[in-house]
Design a protein that fits this description.
This protein has 329 residues and is of the alpha+beta class. 39% of the residues lie in helices and 29% in strands. Strand 8 and strand 9 form a beta hairpin. Helix 3 runs antiparallel to helix 4, helix 6 runs parallel beside helix 8 and helix 7 crosses helix 8. The longest helix is centred in the middle third of the chain and has 32 residues. The chain is flat, with a radius of gyration of 27 Å.
């Protein structure tokens, strides 16, 4: 069977593992347990457990050559309160969960469930009483609707489970956890992960490369009863044809007048410049317009607006300059 040379994520030494043989092997240099799926290292076991992706898209979301750096980053997160930054991605954070936090959450859930049951019981009697009245069925449904939804919410799984209480007790009353998605503090990698106590699970750890690309697609959301309209650009970071991470630039709500469009471009350019300072690379950003979600722009107006924007890009010196800085590498 052919051996495959890999780097131990714990000590960084090159070791040989059998291709096609899925097993847990011990590193001959540091004695760490290496979970090998026959093609990739998908786990590391020391006094902690590190879990790496093992899917067919491993190469897209993960860099096998940088597993040692991934473990170092994981240790910095758990030991030194490191986290990913939200320049591209949602950022990250860590917290300490105490047994008191868990018990307070359990107590809140119990009180909420009790209140929901108490409100549901009289609603049943009222619904039965009005059922024979004109339009009684509609009234009964309305009467039961709110307490039913409230009871469903109360019985839904909450933030903590019994195993969390067991873990906190086992660890002396508390444990740490966290999650993140975005750039590592040194700007070299895109990382995605979640961790709890001594188990760290990666969803991605990919070295930044100028070959990667970013797309900024315009959007408009009308909002609802409890939210205001929003507008901006959805940022998508692609490696090859795969979306790896996303973010959002929010702008004012507008119909793309020259001044507002120029303001949008300057926001996108500011993001690009921040990303360059952090990573050392100037990414080409492709801008895509989607006007059809905006009710004030009909199909004809959308077509005319795209034509107008194209004219600004080609003939307006100020807009053309900013556009070229964004879309150029």
């Amino acid at each position: 069977m052919e051996d495959y040379e890999v780097v131990c994520p714990n000590c960084g030494e090159a070791i040989l593992l059998p291709r096609g043989d899925s097993n847990v092997f011990e590193c001959p240099e540091c004695s760490a347990g290496i979970d090998w799926n026959g093609r990739h290292i998908v786990g590391l076991r020391t006094d902690r457990s590190y879990i790496f992706p093992g899917s067919s898209e491993y190469e897209t979301f993960f860099d096998a050559d940088y597993l040692h750096e991934a473990v170092k980053f994981a240790n910095d997160v758990m030991d030194n309160d490191f986290s990913t930054e939200g320049l591209i991605g949602s950022g990250g954070g860590n917290e300490v969960v105490t047994i008191e936090d868990i018990q307070a959450d359990f107590e809140f859930d119990r009180n909420l469930t009790g209140f929901a049951i108490l409100s549901f019981i009289p609603a049943i009697f009222v619904a039965v009483a009005i059922l024979s009245e004109p339009d009684g069925l509609i009234g009964a449904i309305c009467c039961l609707g709110f307490p039913t939804l409230f009871l469903m919410f109360a019985l839904a799984p909450s933030g903590y489970r019994q195993e969390d209480a067991v873990l906190a007790t086992k660890e002396g009353g508390s444990y740490a956890k966290g999650r993140g998605s975005g750039l590592t503090p040194d700007g070299r990698f895109l990382a995605g992960y979640e961790w709890k106590n001594d188990t760290f699970k990666f969803s991605k750890f990919k070295k930044i490369s100028p070959k990667h690309r970013i797309e900024a697609r315009s959007f408009y959301h009308s909002g609802g009863d409890y939210s205001s309209p929003s507008q901006g650009y959805s940022l998508s970071y692609f490696i090859g044809g795969k979306l790896v991470v996303g973010d959002t630039i929010f702008t004012t709500c507008h119909d793309y007048s020259r001044e507002k469009f120029l303001s949008d471009l300057n926001q996108i350019l500011s993001f690009k410049n921040k990303l360059k300072r952090k990573t050392g690379f100037s990414f080409e950003i492709k801008i895509v317009f989607d006007f059809f979600s905006k009710p004030t722009l009909s199909f004809r107006k959308s077509r005319n607006k795209k034509s107008e924007i194209a004219d600004w890009i080609n003939n307006d010196p100020e807009i053309s300059s900013v556009w070229n800085k964004i879309t150029g590498g």
